[in-house]
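Next comes one such specimen:
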Amino acid sequence: GARLVVDLSSTTIHMLQIPYLRENRAMAQEALQRKKVHDSGEILDHLLNLDDQKRLIQTQVEQNQATLNARAKAIGTAVQQGQHEHAVELKSEVAQIKQENASLENRLHELQEAIQNQLLRLPNLPHASVPHGHGPAENEVVFLSDPSAESTHRELPHWEIAQQYKLIDFELGVKVTGAGFPVYLGAGARLQRALIQYFLDFNVAAGYTEIQPPILVNEDSGFGTGQLPDKEGQMYYVTEDRLYLAPTAEVPVTNLYRDRLLQENELPVLNTAYTPCFRREAGSYGKDVRGLNRLHQFDKVEIVQIVHPDHSYSVLEKMRDHVQSLVASLGMPFRILKLCGGDMGFASALTYDFEIWSAGQGRWLEISSVSNFESFQTNRLKLRFKDSQTGRTRLAHSLNGSALALPRVLAALLEFYTDSKGIKIPAVLQPYMQTDFIPKP
């Protein structure tokens, strides 16, 4: 596959560049352990050892080059003075040094590639405020819209409602493609379209520019946002063309800015996009995959920001507030979690998850993640900006959030708003549905 070359000589030191890891080794080891990299000590030792070898060889190459420069002058002098035998000896020595340098350069290239491949497999370091913990049970609830949410129960789960109202046909999807690819019908298809349009309009009204990106991405794009090599097994791969089906709009949208040098006055960049998303979701089973709970193809509206590094955490809070307003407008119980280190994504430094209460299943369903990646992605993307005060080139910060992922929103909506007469349409969706009610068939 394609290899992304990480610029380790960048003047901006990123957390996962060697100079940072060398100067902050103990902190980096502890932070990686919080991200469930249990052998972080050995990995860092190995990385720094590779870098030590690289430095020694670089020194030897530089010394050899200085010798070559000196010998070139000496050969010129010997020729001028008619010392031809001495000139021949010097030329023979030069040939040997050049051969040695060629061998050293090859070894340097191997070490550089080994360092880069190891760095690409290290997750982003969590922000200092990220709670310690190994999994979902240790996430911190930071907001609950309704203290009595978990006592809200409805008779039917969404898959029974969808079947009764002929909104979604799961079996047809199995026939056409396989499990995890539902077919939406009639009012079900219209409800999907209404949600997508409402989410996009809500984001655009908040200042986001709508983008319609490609949904196939190349390997460089996957590396750029951190899906590769970490999530390679979870992505659908089109072998003939060496392209991946996008697992989220975050990948194509953020990669629009790969290899870009922005001016500071171009920041912040705010984009929103709707795309279908494709995930293999290997290893999922049981109640997690019933109905709309976990699909291989699903619709999602995404928000992405590229910002000045000094402002990324205040922007994260604003993005969280934006998604909170959007979820609240649907009128269903929800909560916000600050994820612990063990439950965070590979590229994230800090993540808030939004979960909506599934009244028909009696469980919380994740519908959004809002994350700050700091310079983790922008370092891989070589996405920089010119600092107006210092004139220096710096890495920007990238953030993204789901606003929102559709399947579980639709699942919770059907369960919460269905009664003995039919399905009530939330007020914000009525203009898009052109009705306030789907009567019981």
About this structure: DSSP finds 13 helices and 18 strands in the chain. The chain has a mean pLDDT of 93. The first strand starts at residue 140 and ends at 144. The CA atoms of residues 268 and 307 lie 5 Å apart.
